[in-house]
Design goal:
InterPro entries: Memb_transporter_dom
Distance between the termini: 56 Å
Helix content: over 70%
Order of helices and strands: HHHHHHHHHHHHHHHH
Number of helices: 16
Largest sheet: none
Protein name: Integral membrane bound transporter domain-containing protein
Number of domains: 2
Number of strands: 0
Subcellular location: Membrane
CATH architecture of the largest domain: Up-down Bundle
CATH topology of the largest domain: Methane Monooxygenase Hydroxylase, Chain G, domain 1
Keywords: Membrane, Transmembrane, Transmembrane helix
Organism: Subtercola boreus
CATH class of the largest domain: Mainly Alpha
């Protein structure tokens, strides 16, 4: 089992590995053959640090990392030039780099990468090719990393697509669980469904990071620019689903209170069952945008019923409040299909 997981992980990293190998070789070759630097260690290490295996492969992140490590190298070289090489110079280089990196970026990893490069320069023997040679190597590594992001891009679109499928599948599963619990009545366990709904934020964050990365790469890559319209549609989808997921947590909390009396709520279960179909179709729309009108039709069929007075005449305030809280959820799902907020709102019955 572990071997299979490891093999799948390695296979999934094939393109990043190819990108990293090409970037390291190109950086080294430019520094060695074009600039005459005999030991361009930092050209290779800056390239590796800038690209890495991280999910977020946005050009801006690659650029920020390259700037950070080059900053660390340059500060260390300045200290080396002014104060020479030694223990206290090493400490000074690292501490200045850490403070500078924390000033420029809130990301802890940014400071550690910059400080590691700074320490490397302070420890390694002084290069014969003169001061700031390693700073030039760092710039070479950063530029090559950025160019390779555009010319040999990672297909972050596939990662974003998989993350979107996973998030929508989880959304649908929460709705299905709520339908089951609402029909069960006194044996219902809404609390476990609420725990599931609360645990979904990391999935949403992963989807957002991978999609931002895919859009960033597509904007600068001549090979992936044609994917931008598809990615922009997915970005609209993400925005609506993110809001709808927050609404779903509110609805689930309300149902936890409503179901304390142990009575089944088949009318509410029917409403949510309609949303299950719509969310499943929303997942299909990732592969086929022509499905979106059918998603809207399913959502509108639910939306027109969201009138507490019509659905539960003479009902308790608790049941009516659930219907009221379903209204923004359905509205946000409609915006996920590409409708404007005003168009989505128009689908709801007036109160």
């Amino acid at each position: 089992m572990l071997a299979r997981v490891g093999a799948n992980r390695s296979a999934g990293s094939a393109l990043p590995i190819v990108q990293l190998v090409i970037a390291v070789v190109v950086s080294y070759a430019i520094a060695y053959y074009l600039f005459g630097h005999l030991t361009p260690v930092t050209a290779a290490t800056v390239t590796l640090s800038s690209l890495g295996f991280v999910r977020d492969a946005r050009p801006l992140r690659v650029l920020e990392t390259a700037i950070g490590v080059t900053l660390g190298i340059t500060l260390s070289e300045v200290i080396l030039l002014v104060a020479g090489q030694g223990i206290w110079q090493l400490a000074l280089a690292v501490i200045i780099t850490l403070f500078a990196a924390r000033f420029f970026s809130p990301a802890p990893g940014f400071a550690i990468i910059a400080a590691s490069q700074s320490a490397l320069v302070a420890i390694l023997p002084v290069v014969a090719s003169g001061p700031f040679t390693r700073s030039v190597d760092g710039l070479i590594g950063g530029v090559v990393a950025l160019l390779l992001t555009a010319l040999v891009p990672r297909d972050a679109r596939r990662v974003a697509h998989a993350d979107a499928k996973r998030m929508l599948g989880t959304f649908s599963r929460i709705l299905e669980r709520l339908v089951e619990e609402l029909r069960r009545g006194d044996e219902s366990d809404i609390g476990s469904v609420l725990d599931l709904a609360r645990s979904t934020q990391p999935l949403m964050d992963q989807w957002r990071v991978s999609l931002d990365s895919a859009i960033g790469i597509a904007k600068i890559s001549p090979f992936l620019r044609r994917r931008l319209p598809e990615l922009e549609r997915q970005n609209v989808l993400l925005g609506g689903v993110d809001l709808a997921l927050r609404d779903l947590r509110v609805v689930t909390r309300r149902l936890l209170v409503v179901m304390r009396d142990g009575r089944p709520r088949n009318e509410l279960a029917d409403l949510l069952n309609g949303l299950v179909s719509a969310v499943n179709l929303l997942g299909q729309s990732l592969d086929d945008p022509l499905v979106l009108p059918l998603v809207r039709q399913n959502l509108i069929l639910v939306a027109v019923r969201l009138d507490p007075g019509m659905l539960f005449p003479g009902s308790t305030v608790a049941e009516g409040s659930v219907v009221m809280e379903l209204r923004p959820l359905v509205m946000d799902l409609l915006t996920a299909t590409g409708l404007t907020p005003d168009e989505a709102r128009a689908a709801l019955p007036a109160l």
